[in-house]
Structure formats: C-alpha cells, structure tokens
Amino acid sequence: MLLGLVGKPSCGKSTFFKAATLADVLIASYPFATIEPNHGMGYVRVNALCKELGVKCNPRTGFCTGETRFVPVELMDVAGLVEGASEGKGLGNKFLDSLRQADLFIQIVDISGTTDIEGREGEGDPVQDVKMLENELNKWYRDIFEKVWNKLSRTIQSTKQNFPEAVAKQFSGLRVSEGDVKSALIKLKLDPEQPALWSEGDLENFTKTLRHLTKPMLIAANKIDKPSAKENLERLKKEFPEILIIPCSADAELSLRQAAKAELINYVQGSSSFTINENKVNEKQKSALESIQKNIFDVYGSTGIQEILDKGVLDLLGYIAIFPAGSKLADSKGNVLPDCFLLPKNSTALDFAYHLHTDIGDKFIKAIDVRTKQPVGKNHPLKHRDGIEIMTS
Predict the structure, then answer these.
(1) Most buried one in 102, 203, 212, 240, CB count within 10 A?
(2) Which structural domains are found in the chain, ordered by start?
(3) pLDDT digits 0-9 by tens, 163-188
(4) Is the pTM for the entire model greater than 0.85?
(5) Would you say residue 261 has pLDDT above 70?
(6) Could you give the CA distance from residue 35 to residue 200 in angstroms, rounded to a whole number?
(7) 25 φ, ψ to 5°?
(8) What is the per-residue pLDDT for 35?
(9) Directed axis angle between helix 229-239 and helix 126-159, to 10°?
(10) Distance (Å, whole) CA 320 – CA 351
C-alpha cells in the first residue's frame, strides 16, 4: 500500500508528510525543497477487534489505544510538480516516475491561494492548481502508453490476444489490472479487437480513464485556517464535485504531534480534541494551542490529516482490514492479535491465505471465523475487521 503525495511546490506536501509520519524531512518555504522522494509510515484507523473480543492486543506494527487500531501504510512525498512536468520541466519526469507504484494520489492544495502556480509567494488559484496537476498527470500517463502503443496494439490485433490481459501485463508497473482495462473499455465503448484503429482521441480518453481507475485521487485542502481558505474551498468543491475534497491543516497536526511527543499535551492523531498539560507549557505555547483549538478544531472537528488517510484507503480504495487470529488469538510468542492487514475489497479467505504466505495459500484447507467459531471455505468473502484463522494441511 503506497500513497503518493503530489502537488505544486510550497503547497505543504512535506509538512503533511511529516505530520502524518513524524519522519525527519526538510520543510522550507521555497520551491523544490524536496529533491529525492521521502518515504515514511502513516496509519489508517480501524475499530479495535481486541475490545470486542475482550482481550488486549500488542501489535508488532502500528499501535492500538484499546479503542482504535492504527494500521501502517506507506507514504511517499515527491518534489513539487509544475506545469510542463510531464515534459521534464523541474525534473518532472524523475518525480513522476517515482509515482508509478502508488495506489492512491493525495493532492495537497494550498487552499489559502497565497502561492502562485510554481509555488512562489503571491496570488494563487487552487482551482487552477488542481487543473494543472490533473493535466500533467494525464499527460504523464498517456506518454507511458504512447511509447509502446503502436507496436503493442498491432501485435494484440494481429495475434488476437486478449486485450485486457495483454494491456494489464504490459503496464503492470503502473498497477493496471485486467478489471481496470475492462472497466475503461465498457465506459468508453472502445473496440478491444481493433486497438490499432483507435484514434489519438480514443487513446487519450482510454489512458485518462485508466489513470483515474488505477491512481484515484483525493484533495487535501491544506492551510484551511488561513484567510480566503473557506471561500476557495467552496469554489473547489463546486468546480470538482466528483473529487473527494477534505479540508486540513498540516501545520496544526504537526504542531500537535510534536507537542504530544514532548508531553505538553495529551493527543492521539486524528482525535477531535486534545488537553493541555498546564504545568508544562509557557504562555506562548498555550496561546498557539488555543488558536488551533479555536480556528481548526472548533470549526472543522480535527486537523483533517488522519481523516484523509482513512478515507483514502478505506473509502476511496475500498480496502478492508483483516486480523489473522488463531484459536488463542495469539502467535507462537504469545503476542495477542499482533497483526492487521489491509486487503482489497472482495478478497476471499484464500486470497488472505496467499497474502500471508504462498505456502499457506497452497496448503489451505479451511478458515475459521474467530467471532462465530464457524469454518468457512476458500471462496468465503471477507468483511472489514474480520478475525480469521487459516487451517492448512
């Protein structure tokens, strides 16, 4: 699971990345402060299974509050993308190439409109920022196809290959699946038996549709507490009703997480409140924290950072969380519910077995639902937060 953070320079990507991961990265107010991609671990919230089963879990990865399990997901922060990035401007090809394996794009938008299209201080337009990035991402995706399309389409047509299978195999590096290709063909009513006869417009529409299927995107409307942010947020929602847009403040979340780490406040990421440890903060710190409470929590309910990760993975991608659990709910070392895995929707018990290990999948006999204690077969569809024990030969 890889979530790619994208956006123009100086929109707050690195701040978002650090707020979500607490990784040590450079944050600067000038364009292209990030050169090489940064990788770190963020988390997705899942209602804890341990509470329901009356036990206390001790995760090997992530953590659990007893109420909420935080399941790790990888985040990648690439350098800011400018107009012409798909043609190499601003080292755009290098940055875009890093995004090939991303499952989801989170576009960070400076919703305050205080930076121009290239990230310099000045007047900006969040609507144009989104249009620019959409255009560059679509061009980048189409260019990858165009490099091999003439030969590939002729080969598929002359040898009568299965089109979805052939395209998915050729572009597996973009995480293209046969299902994605079939969905694009149906939506656009394109002929898969004669792809060599497609027009340039057909190919452009096909790659654009496929990009949205394989790299869905949501918008993080960052700097929501700044002047003009609310007005720009409404404009953005009106212009892009089909895109999930979530207001956020990466600065506020980073401040809260660092304050919590220093024990100045009690705060768990994504919470709708925090408490100040009065005997540990000075007046300046207290004033800053009270400003976050007034301008962000009282208005939006949270900083939005955790909500973006949750909705991106669980709602937009539709992934489900599955807990591997034996009869004693513990592994061989006595760790209770040590793991939680994120699987694509419609996964089966057998899919889960293979996710754990190829040998477990090959030797699958049956699975046990830890709630009902009932056996289920290999084709049993899994549900979000299932606890499953796999029995093997």
Answers:
(1) 102
(2) 145-210 (1.10.8.470), 251-302 (no CATH), 320-392 (3.10.20.30)
(3) 999 999 999 989 999 999 999 999 99
(4) yes
(5) yes
(6) 34
(7) -125, 160
(8) 57
(9) 30
(10) 13
